[in-house]
Amino acid sequence: MQLNKEERIKDGKNLFSVFCVMGSVVYVKYAQDVNSSPSYELEEVLKHYRKMEIMEK
Q1: pLDDT at 35
Q2: What is the DSSP string of 1-54?
Q3: Sign of CA dihedral 10, 46, 17, 38
Q4: What tens digit of pLDDT does each residue of 27-47 get?
Q5: What is the separation, in whole angstroms, between the first and last Cα of the chain?
Q6: Are 18 and 7 in contact (CB under 8 A)?
Protein backbone atom coordinates (compact mmCIF):
# COMPACT_ATOMS: atom_id res chain seq x y z
CA MET A 1 0.00 0.00 0.00
CA GLN A 2 1.32 3.43 -0.97
CA LEU A 3 -0.60 6.40 0.37
CA ASN A 4 -0.52 9.72 -1.44
CA LYS A 5 -1.22 13.27 -0.31
CA GLU A 6 -4.92 14.10 0.16
CA GLU A 7 -6.06 10.46 0.31
CA ARG A 8 -8.62 9.80 3.04
CA ILE A 9 -8.38 7.58 6.12
CA LYS A 10 -11.46 6.74 8.16
CA ASP A 11 -11.42 5.86 11.85
CA GLY A 12 -14.95 5.37 13.07
CA LYS A 13 -16.61 8.78 12.75
CA ASN A 14 -13.31 10.62 12.19
CA LEU A 15 -12.06 11.34 8.71
CA PHE A 16 -8.46 12.30 8.01
CA SER A 17 -6.61 13.52 4.94
CA VAL A 18 -3.00 12.46 4.34
CA PHE A 19 -0.68 15.46 4.78
CA CYS A 20 2.56 13.59 4.09
CA VAL A 21 4.24 10.19 4.41
CA MET A 22 7.75 9.89 5.83
CA GLY A 23 9.11 6.38 5.99
CA SER A 24 6.69 4.28 8.02
CA VAL A 25 4.78 7.23 9.54
CA VAL A 26 1.67 8.79 8.01
CA TYR A 27 0.98 12.42 8.96
CA VAL A 28 -2.66 13.39 8.66
CA LYS A 29 -4.98 16.32 9.30
CA TYR A 30 -8.68 16.33 10.05
CA ALA A 31 -10.83 16.41 6.92
CA GLN A 32 -14.37 17.38 6.13
CA ASP A 33 -16.87 14.57 5.77
CA VAL A 34 -17.19 14.07 2.04
CA ASN A 35 -19.25 10.98 1.29
CA SER A 36 -18.24 10.83 -2.36
CA SER A 37 -14.49 10.49 -1.74
CA PRO A 38 -13.15 6.96 -1.22
CA SER A 39 -11.23 6.26 1.97
CA TYR A 40 -9.09 3.61 3.63
CA GLU A 41 -9.94 2.14 7.01
CA LEU A 42 -7.41 2.88 9.78
CA GLU A 43 -6.86 -0.83 10.49
CA GLU A 44 -5.86 -1.39 6.86
CA VAL A 45 -3.40 1.53 6.95
CA LEU A 46 -1.76 0.35 10.19
CA LYS A 47 -0.99 -3.03 8.59
CA HIS A 48 1.41 -1.22 6.23
CA TYR A 49 2.59 1.78 8.27
CA ARG A 50 4.02 1.90 11.79
CA LYS A 51 1.89 4.77 13.07
CA MET A 52 -0.29 7.71 12.19
CA GLU A 53 0.39 11.20 13.59
CA ILE A 54 -2.39 13.80 13.65
CA MET A 55 -1.33 17.35 12.78
CA GLU A 56 -3.03 20.24 14.56
CA LYS A 57 -6.06 21.88 12.99
Answers
A1: 64
A2: ----TT-EEEETTEEEEEEEEETTEEEEEE----TTS-EEEHHHHHTTSSEEEE
A3: negative
A4: 999 998 766 677 899 999 999
A5: 26
A6: yes
Single-letter residue type at 20: C
At residue 49, the pLDDT reads: 96
Read off the pTM.
0.83
User: Which amino acid makes up residue 14?
Assistant: N
Q: How far apart are CA 3 and CA 11, in angstroms?
A: 16
Backbone angles phi, psi at 46, to 5 degrees: -70, -10
DSSP state, residue 57:
-
